[in-house]
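Continuing the series of single-chain predictions for the mutant panel. This is the parent chain; the variants come on the following pages.
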Amino acid sequence: MFQDDIDGEVNSAMIHALYISSWDIPVYLTQFLRQTIDISLTDDNELIRLLAILDRRVSLEKLISIRDMVDYQPCWLKKFYLLRMQVEDIDMHEGLGNVS
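Parent structure:
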């Protein structure tokens, strides 16, 4: 059962990787750098959202406010959201989180 989940995620990530060519990456990076972090967090492009969620300009308050968005992310991207929330000690299940 667990191996099937892993295989499914790997296949999904591989399929997604086919859609992003190495030629597109500089375009996405430029777009990310030119727009506000709030726009990047809601961008249609998953790579831009990945860069945004890892960006330190995203405040704790903003992270708390976007917690509900995590469930709507692709599985591979959700892991980065959860990682950032964990690093910032934000509880995904409480109303205010564990923010000091």
